[in-house]
Amino acid sequence: MNPIGRALAGGVAGALTVTLLNESARRIIPHAPRMDVIGERALGRTIEAAGLPAPEGDRIKGMALAGDIASNSLYYAAVGLGSPCAAIRNGAILGLIAGIGAATLPGPMGLGPQPGQRTPYTQLLTAAWYTIACLAAGAAFRAIDRHVEDRG
User: Fold this and answer.
1) Which of 23, 25, 85, 135 is exposed most, by the fewest CB atoms within 10 A?
2) How far is CA 146 from the centre of its chain?
3) Average pLDDT of the segment spanning 86-115
4) What are 16-30's pLDDT values in tens digits?
């Protein structure tokens, strides 16, 4: 597997991690992050801005989920752009940046607050989810890189 493939595989691991955290937590933690709803709003408004009717219900949920996984995979793949030894550190930095952005930017972008948001609890969890996911991406990238190097 080439370095880009390793980075993308790590990115997918991170994207699946943040999705699993978000989907699990929203079912059991009061005031959990609801980035799924923010994603649906963003997708719906983008489609409407293109002059098309926005899908509703399960259809927009599925489209937003697929878009989140794809875009997060590409973002988290950035942990593999540097040295494999720096992947965890890069994951921490990139995850914190993504988490702070996800916690603070939806309002100014016109996407409104997360449903049931409780400040600062929900924002802290949002930043934590993205940081954990990017650390997972870095760890996956390093593990894949080591495996490839060991096989030689």
Assistant:
1) 85
2) 24
3) 93
4) 999 999 999 999 998
The residue ranges of every structural domain in the chain are: 3-151
Q: Which amino acid is at 129?
A: W
How distant, in Å, are the alpha carbons of 45, 47, 67, 71, 106 from that of 50?
9, 5, 17, 20, 20
Pair of tokens at residue 47: 């489609």
Task: Report the C-alpha gap between 114 and 97 in whole angstroms.
Answer: 18
**Whether the predicted pLDDT of 37 surpasses 90:** yes
Per-residue pLDDT tens for 143-152? 998 888 787 6
In terms of Cα–Cα distance, which of 46, 31, 131 is closest to 90?
131
Pick the closest to residue 72 from 51, 99, 109, 40 (CA basis): 99
pLDDT at position 10 over 80: yes
In whole angstroms, what is the distance from residue 61 CA to residue 58 CA? 5
CA 24 to chain CA centroid, nearest Å: 14
The span from the CA of 116 to the CA of 122, in Å, is: 9
CA 14 from centroid of its chain's CA atoms: 7
